[in-house]
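Q: Predict the bound structure with (R)-mevalonate.
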Amino acid sequence: MKDGFSKLTKSEKIDWVIENFFNSSNDDLEILKQYWSEDEELQKIHDEFSENTLTNFFIPLGIAPNFLIDNKNYTIPMAIEESSVVAAACKSAKFWSNRGGFKTEVINVIKTGQVHFKFNGDKNKLYEFFENSKSKILNDCNEISENMKARGGGILNINLIDKTSEISDYYQLSSDFNTVDSMGANFINSCLEQFAKSFETEFLESKLFDKGENLEIVMSILSNYVPQCLVKAEVRCKLNDLKNGDIEEPIKFARKFIDAVEIAKNDISRAVTHNKGIMNGIDAVVIATGNDFRSVEACAHAYAAKEGKYSSLTHAKIEKDEFIYWIEIPLAIGTVGGITNLHPLVKWCLKLLKNPNGKDLMRIIAVAGLAQNFAAIRSLITSGIQLGHMKMHLINILNTLSANKTEKEILINYFKKNKVSFRSAETALKKLRNDELNF
Ligand code: MEV
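A: Predicted complex:
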């Protein structure tokens, strides 16, 4: 047990952890230090993002050019460690940019939150009280929502919801919000906490209730489930236009593709992996643009189960002679607030995207998810996933095996024509070192 750890200085924290977990090893101390920025101001910004920061944790930032979205060209930043994701995005971007590109539609941008509370009295009186105090509750929030209103958003409504059929005495004040270009978590939570305060104060002052009728606020919090903050991204082309590289028989390819999506729609084992591939693309852009990938993930998977069964987030069909393929996904993200104005690389990534507003970033992220899924299914139903995946992963294997620069060059060349696995790379490296590698 270490009391008051957060109050130690950064260097005291490091001393403590190195002494207690790394046997005071200088090498382990150096590992932490080598990730520090030489720019002290920059390091300070990063240190202050979070509590007990010791160092920085690098994730590669790559870019995927050639995305044609609603007739505009984008180069998309992706922060991800998985070797094949950016390459897959690039491949899909190029493929679809030659076939009209991606078309998107932001269906809605409503976010919600709830004050969860218990009330043990007469339901009708509670509804009457709520109707009478509603405008006071909303007015009490004016100061908090002033700025958001000025930006074109704010509180959209507030409703009393009876949840007593699920939990006895349980109700909600449920509210919808438009947070414009911000993710809006702080705004929503501040409004909800104010609602709760006003609601409780009004309740205590009300003459409507009898002695034994009590109200207890349980909690006030936004919901990360935002099915009304929804975006759609779509691609379509003539079946014959699908022909490209390993897609030799376009109609057969389209049918097999639709089968693959149907399997993901119906089988949970496949659906989770299918959606994980979509999230490879989505999370990478969400992280690069300084957004909260945990909330996006949690919401996406809940949305995938909205019909009562976990299913695919993408859809595909053939209509007449056209292949149509789309994603519909809720995305609560922002381009202002949070760390978006603070993290220099996040600002750089947003600039690369031509400083999109919230809606435009929703479009871009949905496209990244669809592109990723297209690349995955394309590989799965043609060459198989391992060919491309292992080719991209080869460099990690060679680094793990401590191959030097020349060895890496030779082996990357060698594996252009040979199957990659950890074992085959290990054997090839051994042979190379013994002068036994035959091309
Ligand atoms: C790997 O990170 C993602 C895939 O498994 C997705 C999929 O199977 O659709 C390739």
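A: The beta strands are 61-69, 72-79, 103-106, 111-119, 154-162, 170-178, 215-222, 230-238, 314-319, 322-330.
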